[in-house]
Amino acid sequence: MNKESYYITSPFFSLYVDGSCLNNVNVNKETDAGWGFLVVEGDLPLGNGKGEIIYEDNGLVITDSSSKNYLGAKVGSNNTGELSAIAHALRWILMNTKNENVEICTDSTYAGNIACGKWKAKANKELAAKVQKLWNEVETKQKLTWRHVRAHRGHRWNERADHLANRAVRKIIPEPLSFWKPGMR
Q: What are the residue ranges of helices labelled H in 18-124?
């Protein structure tokens, strides 16, 4: 597929998502994990940063079921970070788009397949069910797909999502895009 035909058939919005957990071993409810996502308009899947970021957000995975921001994560982990990022991205889609082609881009085949309902979750089932419910709600209103992006290979927007998630778990404000470079955590 050449670039011109990709523009004609490409998603109007690409949402890059990522999760981060600094110590992803023996995780529990107290383990910090973060999520991040960004919305790109006019993206090409080549990884060279085409398009324009129109929104980005990040935060911590909430494991406290009494919190109003609880999505169902029982532990903080890379996987719950990835699924939380997808949940927040899907919420953004529901509030900000109508009848668009939308694509979720993730470096986790696990999260992508759980989100769309292709795979069944063996852990954090409540979080997975919430994400699948959001996915199904978006799908009833517009075309939604997901695409795997290889992690830590210099893909500009995937690297930015990684930066957002990593900064969230470290409780540091993300670098502004004008100062940030791919690979900067």
A: 78-96, 109-115
pLDDT at 4: 42
Residues contacting 159, CB < 8 A, separation 6+: 152, 182, 183, 184
Which domains does the chain carry?
Answer: 3-170 (3.30.420.10)
**CB–CB of 54/40 below 8 Å?**
yes
Beta pairing class for 143-148 and 101-106: parallel
The residue behind tokens 């990684």 is: 162
Residue 71 backbone class (left: φ over 0; alpha: ψ -120 to 50; beta: rest): alpha
What's the pTM? 0.90
Q: What is the mean pLDDT of residues 105-131?
A: 96
Residue 124 CA to residue 146 CA, distance in Å, equals 21
Distances 57 to 24, 47, 88, 91 between C-alpha atoms, Å: 22, 20, 9, 12
Tokens of 179: 């100062």
Structure tokens at 177: 């895009």
